[in-house]
Amino acid sequence: MFPLKQQKGTALVGVMMILLVLTLLGSTAFLTSQTEQNISSNYNQSLQALYAAEAGLQQLLSFYRQNPGDFLQKKTGQEMNFPTKEPEDPKSTGIKFWINALRYDPQEVPNYAEVIMVGKDPSQNGLSRVRATIYCARSGGPINVPSVFKMGIVTTGQLHLNGPLDILGNLHANRGYSIEPSSVIEQLKQNYFSVTQSLDPMRPDYLAPLEVPMISEKKFQDYRSMAQQPANQILFGQQSLALSGDQKGLLIFVEGDLILTGYALSGVTIAATGSITLNGSTSLNGNHDLDVAFIAGGDIGLNDFSQIAGVFWSNGTVKKTGSGKLMGTVVCQGSIIQSGGLQFERVSQISNPFLSPTPTSYAFSLTGWSQM
Description:
Elements: H1 4-66, H2 68-72, E1 96-104, E2 112-120, E3 127-139, E4 152-155, E5 159-162, E6 165-168, E7 170-173, E8 177-180, H3 183-190, E9 195-197, H4 217-227, E10 233-236, E11 239-255, E12 258-272, E13 276-282, E14 293-296, E15 300-305, E16 307-314, E17 318-320, E18 325-332, E19 336-338, E20 342-346, E21 361-371
Parallel strand pairs: 4-7, 4-18, 5-8, 6-20, 7-9, 10-11, 11-12, 12-13, 12-14, 13-15, 14-16, 15-17, 16-18, 17-19, 18-20
Antiparallel strand pairs: 1-2, 2-3, 3-21
């Protein structure tokens, strides 16, 4: 038998040992719970930051859908007023997102853009980076340009040409033609071009009347609508403009008459409900395609030029003065009038979306995204 005092000491030590074990277990449980809470909090912050980055990608995708011209022109995030560094103020939901990197397809007309988007959660502690690709699929546009725009010179009216003449292209007039000197006709045939008319079915050069498209009010309404997009321009009343260089696919719609002076002008479509008077010079693009077009509800006048390249589409007549070289294609409802001879070269490779019965449409999709 142990003495009573010794028994009490042993019991005290046992109780203290039990208390120590319970304390250690409690501390361990608390630390474990705290760690799990921190892990859960960090996971939630990381997840919300990921959602923020995805929200940024969706906003960029929506922006391209509303402004396809910005995609085609390969604009930077800064040029699109999209945040490219951490914004000072969060969104209404408390999140932040910004573009860390944006790289376009190196082709002249891009098919995709690669983007790295950064997102922050509402607590501003979680950060996530997401890499994704935005693809652009095009339909309609240049591939659907009617064949009449690729022939050369075509008119519903009459065609009167007199020398000196240097012509490479097909010529057709629904109401007949007169060409002097007549030897030009044989030269064209030797170069595998045709000269045809629809006035006299008994002649060997007869061709059934061609359907020469008119610019309908519905077509003008389409141009008017497209010109109101941010990448384009709409003007009212008589206008006088001077443009130079590559206009990157710009559409200008004029509600009235236009006098335009061009300097090595390319990449532009001018549509006017009235007449268009053109001075100066226009050119083919870098691929030697026609991407310039002049579309007039009235007449088109070509004055004082050294070289003009484009599609000339008129509900009226096309009048040419001076001795400059004309390249491209002419399609009109009225007669074609020229003085000072004509130097003309057909260009049938057309890259202009505004001549198609089906305007170019763009579909953007987000794919291949991954968290970094």
